[in-house]
What we know:
Layout: H1 3-20, E1 44-45, E2 52-53, E3 61-65, H2 66-71, H3 77-80, E4 87-91, E5 99-103, E6 106-107, E7 119-123, E8 126-127, E9 141-148, E10 162-168, E11 176-184, E12 188-199, E13 205-216, E14 221-222, E15 234-247, E16 250-263, E17 268-273, H4 275-281, E18 301-302, E19 310-326, E20 329-347, E21 354-357, E22 360-363, E23 368-387, E24 391-417, E25 420-445, E26 454-473, E27 477-497, E28 500-511, E29 514-515, E30 526-527, E31 530-543, E32 548-567, E33 578-599, E34 602-617, E35 619-621, E36 628-630, E37 643-652, E38 660-670, E39 695-709, E40 714-723, E41 731-736, H5 738-741, E42 743-748, E43 753-761
Parallel strand pairs: 7-10, 14-18
Antiparallel strand pairs: 1-2, 3-9, 4-5, 5-6, 7-8, 9-10, 11-12, 11-43, 12-13, 13-15, 15-16, 16-19, 17-42, 19-20, 20-23, 21-22, 23-24, 24-25, 25-26, 26-27, 27-28, 28-31, 29-30, 31-32, 32-33, 33-34, 34-37, 35-36, 37-38, 38-39, 39-40, 40-43, 41-42
Amino acid sequence: xxxxxxxxxxxxxxxxxxxxxxxxxxxxxxxxxxxxxxxxxxxxxxxxxxxxxxxxxxxxxxxxxxxxxxxxxxxxxxxxxxxxxxxxxxxxxxxxxxxxxxxxxxxxxxxxxxxxxxxxxxxxxxxxxxxxxxxxxxxxxxxxxxxxxxxxxxxxxxxxxxxxxxxxxxxxxxxxxxxxxxxxxxxxxxxxxxxxxxxxxxxxxxxxxxxxxxxxxxxxxxxxxxxxxxxxxxxxxxxxxxxxxxxxxxxxxxxxxxxxxxxxxxxxxxxxxxxxxxxxxxxxxxxxxxxxxxxxxxxxxxxxxxxxxxxxxxxxxxxxxxxxxxxxxxxxxxxxxxxxxxxxxxxxxxxxxxxxxxxxxxxxxxxxxxxxxxxxxxxxxxxxxxxxxxxxxxxxxxxxxxxxxxxxxxxxxxxxxxxxxxxxxxxxxxxxxxxxxxxxxxxxxxxxxxxxxxxxxxxxxxxxxxxxxxxxxxxxxxxxxxxxxxxxxxxxxxxxxxxxxxxxxxxxxxxxxxxxxxxxxxxxxxxxxxxxxxxxxxxxxxxxxxxxxxxxxxxxxxxxxxxxxxxxxxxxxxxxxxxxxxxxxxxxxxxxxxxxxxxxxxxxxxxxxxxxxxxxxxxxxxxxxxxxxxxxxxxxxxxxxxxxxxxxxxxxxxxxxxxxxxxxxxxxxxxxxxxxxxxxxxxxxxxxxxxxxxxxxxxxxxxxxxxxxxxxxxxxxxxxxxxxxxxxxxxxxxxxxxxxxxxxxxxxxxxxxxxxxxxxxx
Length: 762
């Protein structure tokens, strides 16, 4: 038995033993009705492409409801991730419209729009391509579901790490208007207006439209820019529309979303330099230029070259049609179209640096450069959903096509010695098209044994991916590749009682291969598909008349050809160097989620996530011999915290005649994490120095809700809140530019912020 499998069995045994230690508290009385004030809220998810209660769904899935998100002002995926175990998400540094998200240690941190992510993100069933287009404002959401582990059989693009399923809210049955206003630190202003039409006459149609404006000054002061153009500044406008039609056997949902983002990227401050870089830029003041400041600690006032605002645009259309042939058989179509375009600029130093170059004294810079991206995608999914007394099944066909353009350039000074530089540039310019087609099916069967408490589920998905690239920089290439995969999943689940279910699952997932468009000629242009095989066991339970909910899962995942993004600096004057390494690795871990309502006034929720990854093989050149060597024993897993923990407590104060007053506090913890795979001097000499320390985020909120205004025709809710109250200097990204450029940066998250919300609902 491998050590990882042994560890998994130990974790599972310990958890099962812990839950089994308290048989006396198992549910014996009738469950409270839905919406009962005594028990916990019942949550419905669509993790298996049909609506099911979360507690009876035999997969590792967590959900955050739209009501919770609205109450806590969670506006994007990286904020939601703090409440869910074994998911780590941050704003993508270098592209303000992206989120760098890892689930169970698997994710993608490169901003190249031509690379597939192992985490699939969906809005109303439509897959969102491109890692830089996944961090948008969640304007009006019913819930966010996070599915952990490979999604190889049911969800659009086959993925190895997991899926994030965003379900938007359907229009309300009655007419209504809602306005929410927020003001906070750094002159943050958020205004959201929402209108529900209710049913329009007797047409069967209803609609909802929402508009949100959000702006914030930067949280680092650039002395060369006004506050609204400082690093971290944002100015966004988002529009969301949904129409719902219901005509007996036919239902239709159309949604449209649009967001325009303008702002400055977070500040990647130069924190470490090589002796050669330090000596070279120390000459600038003597030559009449500025000063390159190197500081490993957070800086609040900086001198940066002014650059244009980053500009991002996203829009999407989704149409879902469902026709019920009978109460047991339905046909569904999900059609999607999305666009993304963006331009981003990242400076690392002041504009007035000068130095000796091969052409004389001239302006110099460690690195500065714009990135332009554009993506258009189409998708279509056809489903057949059916059920009988003992069978549940879903089958379908999936088609996806996208076209992506990447135009990434850089201007920099390449050092020939401590006293001489060479102004040059590097570029990555490529166009890629991808087409994916798949056929899938999943069947669940409850055999006439064990009092109908046992269910077995099996699923298959065949996928064919085709990718074509036309590249002009850093070298010319025209290439097409095809990838094929057959993924499967088998799940066994058994209800020991009405409120206690155990399940075991074996599943596979796949992530297509692709092209190293940043690589140099001869460095290995193609990389292989990634495959995952996971063994997972779990228990879902409720106790004390639904006052305590405890869900736990443990997993072991075997990855073959794991795609590890690795930036390697510059390999020569005017050339870039980066790429994807294929490695083999094992991941072992668990998730534990608890929710409790010991008394009606108190709600407690907490979670613990743990993931322990180990390489079996990952090859890099030996610094001395240059021969490829397996560094499995010493290599790191970029962006992966071993521990992700959260605890939240809410207390509803006794009624005092004017609304309902509540207090809430949340604490989220992540253990330390590396940002690159190696510490080799020829690869990433600063990797250990830029490692992110443990992260501690504390937030609190006081809310007064359900205050009648305008003679009771509307309800008012107001909150005072604070985030990162410990003012933790947490690091969201570190970049080691390698030995050839000789410097490394760290980017810090948002400091302590405070503010207030006001919401009126009519």
